[in-house]
Every structure is written in C-alpha cells, then in structure tokens.
Write a structure and sequence with these properties.
7 strands; alpha/beta; 14% strand; binds nicotinamide-adenine-dinucleotide; seven-stranded parallel sheet
C-alpha cells in the first residue's frame, strides 16, 4: 500500500500512546479515521487534537472494549455503515502485565491480559477481515512486542499474550500470502507511553520505555508502505532480535537476567529458592 490518502484506517486503543500517534500520523497522510478505545475521554481528546490540526478530517469514534467480541463486531459494522469498508486496521489496544512471577499470578490476572492483548487482536482481525478482503487494497497490522519474541521475568502473562499474537498473525500471513491483503506483525521495544500505569515498576519504565511513540509509529507506517511482514522497532529492539535469533536459549536467559534483573520486583521471590549447583 503506497498511500493512505482517503483510505479508511481503523485504530484500536487510540486514546493514548502509540494508538493516538498512529491516528495523528494517518490523519497527516489524509486518511479517514475510525478510532476506538475503552477510555472515552482520551478518545475524545485524540479526535479533538486531530480536528484541531485537520479541520476537514473525517473521524468516527466509539467506546469499545476489545476483549468483548460483540462490541468489536458492532464497531466494524459502524465503520462500514458510516465511512465505508476498512482498508487499514491497526490492532493496537493492549495492557501491561501484572508484573509478578508465574507462581504469584492468579489465573484471573492471566486471563484478563490474554482477553485484551490476545483475544482483542483476534476479535479485531476477524471482525474486519471481510472488509479488508472486499476492499481494493487492505492492510492488517497486529501489535505484538519485543516480549512476543523473548520470555522476560515477571512478564509471563504479557509475554504469553504477545507470543500468541505472533503465532496467530504469522499463520494468517501464510494463509493470505498470495492475496491482496497485507498482514504485518509489529514488535516494538520500550516506548515512552502511559502503558505502565500501575506505577509498580518505575525503574523498569526509566530504564526501558525510552523511544518516542510518534517516531515508532512512523517506522511502522513506513513498514506498511514497504509491505514489510515483521516490523521490529524501538529501544533495544534490533540488538534483542539478534540475540533471539542467534544465541542459545540458556545464554539468552542469562543476558536477559543481567539486563533486567536489577529492575525486577523481587517481592514474590521466596527465600527457599536455592541456587542451581
Ligand atoms: N510502550 C511500550 O513499550 C510497548 C512495547 C511493546 C508493545 N507495546 C504494545 O503497543 C500497544 C500500545 O501500547 P502503548 O504503549 O501505546 O500503551 P497505552 O497504554 O498508552 O495505550 C494503550 C491503549 O489501549 C487502550 N486499551 C487498553 N485495554 C483496552 C480494551 N480492553 N479495549 C479498548 N482499549 C483498550 C488503553 O485505554 C490505551 O488508550 C499495546 O498493545 C502494547 O502492548 C507497547
């Protein structure tokens, strides 16, 4: 897809962070926007910012919880009825994990993260694919993470959800490789957004969430134009990718702990874990 002018672009999680940055950048490119988020106030702010910069912009917004399949389907119906068939869909909405090791996680905490980060992407993909298939051109962009490529401490819930997005999307890529629908998988590294809301791990935020959201989204948009399947971007993303591809898993685990161990919250690490002999 070479241009987004007059294209109908859907962005989930558009109330803040990268979702807002995608919305602003696609508006700059002349796209018509369909934005959703469960944060209605933030969503209105995003629409207001865009209308301020582009008074003629066509934008629709809807309060949607992406983990609720019926709400996502209702959103897809609204987009088609009010703007036309979607041509670009960015499944971006997501939440952080619970910042605890596996043994300290309740199953309900894992389910919540999976329901938003993984099933939200599944619902967004299935609700909008028929529109993308009917359009002259189509691009589906599913947001995973660098943590969808490697397992990091206190992030099993988040990593599981982002690995799942990767598996789901890579299968879809294979299925649609000869079709006109482009499928993209985005693996951002640390980006300075509000995702780490719990405030439980300021050290992590300071050390890792460094890249500028707009710069990252620009890179993703360039990747869509170039039809890049896998878009890896942001702080430490490329060096991590090299490690993931070429290092033995045991060495990779050691390097991950060396890099992240200092900022890992150890509250739930019991005294009775003995060191390996
Ligand atoms: N910030 C990073 O370092 C980073 C790194 C890798 C991947 N990501 C991923 O990028 C995406 C965007 O994250 P961000 O950093 O911009 O965070 P953010 O918190 O600023 O934005 C996420 C948006 O998703 C919305 N959202 C959350 N749950 C939702 C739900 N159930 N239904 C609808 N909307 C919901 C939030 O309200 C928010 O507006 C997420 O999928 C995140 O996992 C972020």
């Amino acid at each position: 897809m070479k241009s987004f002018r007059h294209k109908i672009v859907v962005v989930t999680g558009a109330a803040s962070g990268m979702g807002r940055a995608y919305a602003e950048l696609f508006a700059d490119e002349g796209a018509k926007l369909a934005l959703c988020d469960f944060d209605e106030k933030g969503l209105k702010e995003t629409a207001g910012l865009i209308r301020g910069a582009h008074p003629q912009a066509e934008i629709i917004t809807m309060k949607v919880d992406v983990s609720d399949r019926q709400q996502v389907i209702a959103f897809a119906d609204k987009v088609e009825a009010e703007l036309g068939k979607a041509q670009v869909v960015i499944n971006n909405a997501g939440v952080e994990g619970n910042n605890r090791p596996v043994w300290a996680l309740d199953i309900s905490q894992i389910e919540r993260v999976m329901n938003i980060n993984f099933y939200g992407v599944v619902h967004g993909t299935q609700a909008f694919l028929p529109q993308l298939m009917d359009s002259e051109e189509g691009a589906l962009v599913n947001v995973s993470s660098l943590f969808g490529l490697m397992g990091t401490p206190n992030a099993s819930d988040y990593c599981a959800s982002k690995f799942a997005v990767r598996g789901f999307t890579e299968s879809l890529m294979t299925e649609l490789q000869y079709s006109h629908v482009q499928v993209h998988l985005v693996h951002p590294g640390g980006v300075a957004t509000g995702i780490s809301r719990s405030g439980g791990n300021d050290d992590f935020k300071e050390r890792f969430l460094k890249s500028d959201a707009k710069a990252i989204c620009r890179e993703v948009i360039r990747g869509i134009k170039q039809d890049k399947l896998r878009i890896i971007c942001a702080h430490q993303a490329r060096s991590s990718m090299l490690g993931i591809r070429f290092l033995p898993l045991r060495l990779l685990q050691k390097l991950i702990w060396l890099d992240m161990g200092r900022v890992v919250d150890k509250t739930h690490y019991p005294q009775n874990i003995r060191r390996k002999k």
